[in-house]
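Lecture notes, unit on binding sites. The following record was shown on slide 14. It pairs a sequence with iron/sulfur cluster.
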Amino acid sequence: MIEKLEPDLDFKRRIIGLDARDLSYCYQCGTCSAVCPVSSEENPFPRKEMIWVQWGLKERALSNSSIWLCHQCGTCSAYCPRDAKPANVMAALRDYSITHYATPRFFGVALSHPKYLPLLFALPVAILLAILAGLGNLGGLPEGRIVFAKLFPDFYVEALFDIAVGLAVLGALAGGARYWSAMRGARADGGGSFWTALAQVIREILDHGQFKRCIDEPVGSRPTHQTHLYKTHLAVFYGFLGLVATTASVGVGIHFFDYLTPWPLWHPVKILGNVSGTALVVGLAVFFWHRIGEQARAGKSTYADWLFLIILALAVFTGFACESLRLADLAALAYPTYFVHLTLVFFLLVYLPYSKFGHLVYRTTAMLYARSQLNARGLVADASDLAK
Ligand code: SF4
Ligand code: SF4
């Protein structure tokens, strides 16, 4: 049967606009797919993505797991004989796909355009100001020893973030389901057990095995920008997990044991929070260094990249600042900083599925799908075979 192709040239223009302007240089030699540490014979990439974008085959490009299995190591760009920067094209496709699958779509568009930033911040700021007004705390700062719960009682903070997480989960499920359905629609064969695949993917995420491949099995001597990626991503990933565990533990302590904040510095949960925050800061600093100091090798950095990195860094920074200012008893700075910190954390959480943070959703979905396909074909192997 002859398949009718429907090119979408606006899609191609949009991908080029996401800092993938060299993609037209590609002459399909296939070197990039051969050197990619996570590509495979059965589903080679990124060569095919290059031609799909050149031809404007939007649905094909967006309904493939490859774009999210790529972890932006830069090896393909380092070896491309035409300097077409295939790693940039893969990154641009990921940015585009977050907006494409965003549900509601408005948030996907808003997180990818700077003009919407004031509106996006207005939502958490308005909610927090409304809470302050409702509590009668707008008129001045609490007096006496600095306790952030005097400004925003724990109940309100917990409720606010429960709602933010709930909305983010709904958005993530909707976007992830649309991506999954697109991948299934693009392939005739069925998948294996979802739960088996889920267990395998969780293990793969925890050990970051794929990130290590370009270090353990280098294809040549050319430097790729992401040889640091394994350790840096590991620091950010476990730093973030540690902060989530810290926040959850504080919630449990308050609700079930009436153990009110602030907790002492020596408390294990407080130590976990500080160590996790430090790991996150170090990881983010390395990411910033590579994106700013090694731009040529680091590849593209779009608005979405910077927005995510900056908001995450500011959230961690203001978290540490709150603690330091409280210990220094500087109420005039501590309380406003706490307000900013809550705004940033709310921003990160509620917009998670629509920002760069959405890679948590889409990369996991792609890994699940790829692993499920692998299991169905009886090709049980290690994490490196996910792309098959
Ligand atoms: S992107 Fe470069 S390496 Fe890949 S197929 Fe095109 S020309 Fe060859
Ligand atoms: S950036 Fe790395 S993982 Fe992604 S396609 Fe290129 S070589 Fe493969």
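Take-home: The chain has one domain: 103-387.
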